[in-house]
Design brief:
about 210 residues
């Protein structure tokens, strides 16, 4: 195949054409090319783009992850785009993203869940606001919440509004609760109102006002 040819231009052309034709069997060859010493910036970018269109395996994820913090900005940006495409095609890779030690890779997963809200993915948003230690990062997650499907997320936002040590996080959690005006939210609020203690009742009044 063209991917096995030594010529740089041939490999770049092959990577682009293969991605356009959705030839998934070419993924191993693209991964091999990325390991070659002295590979050019242009071929790295073309290969990453192709993997973003074709790759679905754990190996593809791990390979793309290596380029997220690459010193060349155009390469790192392309790696992030490719990982965004990968998770859109294969949600089963979500845990790989969230278990990454790289904050930028975890953020891709959270943003996917927030941009394509589904009840089954809200557990990952809850995991994010509980487990992430950087307030600014947690604040970014809270700021992007546009829908609440599950009572679990609703209750966690109540807890953050009342008990977070950070005033900014408390305000952002309450803001997330206030901006969602759906029948589902009203049901959660009225249910909470029946069993709420004093602090929660004051919050419920604010949410219903």
């Amino acid at each position: 195949s063209l991917l096995e040819f030594p010529g740089e231009e041939q490999k770049r052309f092959a990577s682009c054409e293969i991605a356009a034709c959705d030839i998934k069997r070419a993924v191993p060859g693209i991964l091999t090319n990325l390991k070659e010493p002295g590979i050019s910036k242009e071929l790295i970018i073309d290969s990453i783009k192709a993997l973003g269109e074709l790759g679905e395996s754990r190996t593809t994820f791990l390979t793309l992850s290596e380029y997220v913090d690459f010193q060349e900005p155009n390469i790192s940006k392309e790696a992030v785009r490719a990982l965004e495409k990968l998770i859109q095609r294969n949600e089963s890779r979500m845990k790989l993203y969230l278990e990454s030690t790289n904050r930028n890779i975890r953020e891709i997963a959270y943003m996917y869940c927030l941009n394509y809200p589904k009840a089954r993915n809200e557990k990952y948003i809850v995991r994010g606001i509980i487990n992430e230690k950087e307030n600014r990062f947690v604040g970014n997650i809270l700021a992007w919440i546009r829908e609440i499907y599950t009572e679990n997320l609703f209750n966690e936002l109540i807890k953050f509004t009342l008990y977070s040590e950070s005033m900014e996080i408390r305000m952002m959690a309450e803001s997330a609760l206030k901006r969602i005006k759906t029948p589902r939210m009203f049901k959660y609020i009225t249910k909470k109102e029946k069993i709420a203690h004093t602090n929660e009742k004051l919050l419920i009044i604010r949410l219903l006002s």
